[in-house]
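Our consortium's second objective concerns turning raw sequence data into structural hypotheses that experimental partners can test. To show how far this objective has progressed, the report includes one record in full. It was chosen at random from the queue rather than selected for favorable results. The single chain below, 653 residues long, was entered without modification.
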Amino acid sequence: MGRRAWDRILFREIKMIETRLLLPLLIALGLSVAIVSPIAAQTSDGSSSSLDTIIVTGTRLTDDLSRIPNSTTVIDRATIEARKDSSVVDLLRAVPGVQITQYGGRGGLTSLFVRGSEPNFTVVMIDGIKVNDPNNTRGGSFDFSTLHVNDIERIEIVRGPQSSIYGSDALAGVINIFTKRGTREFEVTLDAEGGRDEYVRGGVGLSGPVGENGDFSLRAGYVDDGDPVEGNDFTSTAVTGKLVVNPLENMTLRVSGRYADSDAESFPEDSGGPEYAVIRDTDDRDSDDLALGANLDWKLTDSFTLHALGSYYDHDENFDSPGIAPGVRDPVPPNSADTELDRYEVASYMVWSIGSGFSASAGADYWNEEGDSEGFVDFGFPIPTDFNLDRDIVGLFTELKYETSAVTLQGSLRRDDPDDEDDETTAKLGAIYRFSDGFSRLFANWGEGFKLPSFFALGHPLVGNSELKPEKSESWDIGWGQELIAGKLNFTVSYFDNEFKDLIDFDFELFQNVNRSRVDTSGYELEVGYRPLDVLTFTSHVTYVDIDAKEPGVQLRQRPDWRGGVSATWLPLRNWMVNVDWLYVDESFDSSVPTGGMMLDSYNRVDATVTWDATQRLTVTLAVDNLLDEDYEEAIGFPAPDIRPRVGVRYRF
């Protein structure tokens, strides 16, 4: 073993010791609740209860959710507390236009598809820091299973291309995950939870004021998912911190950091899982994440604000796979890879109010990312698969908004200059018209996106192709939002149409990656919220996606036509809350090496939670995942976990 490998092992062990020391210190239920959406703050026209939620994702001209044209969903802290999901993966299942696939338990890889797109077509950020990994075999996607749900304050999901704001990778949307910020009073929080199949979770949090207007938050958490599915294992330790201070009266500085160590085991993705895998050994995947960021907002005058930010992201992953035995499809040989990604970003931009309803922003950013991989594929003898690539990207961007009481018009333009690649220019337009009755809204969006080839697609010695072009997208959507019954009932219906082209695909004859594919997706998203009583709320979502892969005989995997769900929250007593969530997912096509292509059955899943605030400081939770013990698979041969009761407590000092 080389010096570099020993250094990584030593670094990982030191980080693990440091972390352990910190731990102790739908589709239709009838017209009454039909199509009602499960998120507290909702959609592009703000058709839900939290219309004053300030949105910072998908625009630099922040505004209320109700005045942002983008198709946006916000999962706020109140929703997270009501649902009490054990993972972020389960939390995201309730988002319209989003399909989640998990290979068995939490140790299996997680894929997220926005409006029928690929899992690597969505930019994922944590506190504004991009965490996509272009080293992995999935082309730059992010594994959501590594996130700790108790660390999160809210999640903003923007559907539609966002490259005019964020540059590369935002072909289909953006997901921005915000960790908890501090409180204005000093507080210590202890939480613990246990459940079936040896599930364990625990954490400690500190938060409090800094100076007159600042605050801080520090959390450490641990989760062991137990053994809900054969061959599946997942443990993770995470530390997050956030500091907000005001060095000057007109200046705000935000600093955030996150470190996570995750160890996962699962049968290989296309092996057929516990049901069909011939080789009974599992993939081992160990990863370390470090994300650091700082943002400075300086209000120079009433009309001008200067923003500056910088971030660093490091992702190390060690992956070992036993391979997949031959079946209907060709086998996959044993393989291993030790990868490291380093990414730096600096940016500065100005936001100003021009007057007469106009506001604008303009600025520049610089990205540097380096990917390194050391590995092999075993064809009876090891073949090295090492690569090392880096790139610099300079971006120039601007955004303009015109707003009156009835109309919002918004547009953005961006020019990216990646080294060794042609420049890319992307644009986005959005509009809202608010009718004079004050309860009706019409909104529309159009946008472009692009994605630079991943380091894996470019540099892998066996399948990589240095001549690959960026993948591109063009999309539009249009929708209507309405409030009825004095605001107790609201709904949003929208239609979207996406075109993805120059998609990177593997050519078996050339035995390398090539640009050739085109995929069109279109569909509908329908959301409604209904609050018949102050103590009773129904929400729901329904999504239909039609996928047209332009290549004959090609059928995209794990993307159902229909999905939807209903959530009900009831407050029977002042200190009690009951939440029930139903999710329906239509049948979908999938493929594995031992079986070839086949259809996965549709399924229904019900989760329930009862929360009791025993005192002002003590909260007790009883949750049951998969309450009806539904037997279903999200990937061939990987059964979903059975019914799992969980009991949790939280104490605040």
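The partners drew two points from this record. The chain has one domain: 3-652. The radius of gyration is 24 Å. Both points have been shared with the crystallography group to help prioritize constructs.
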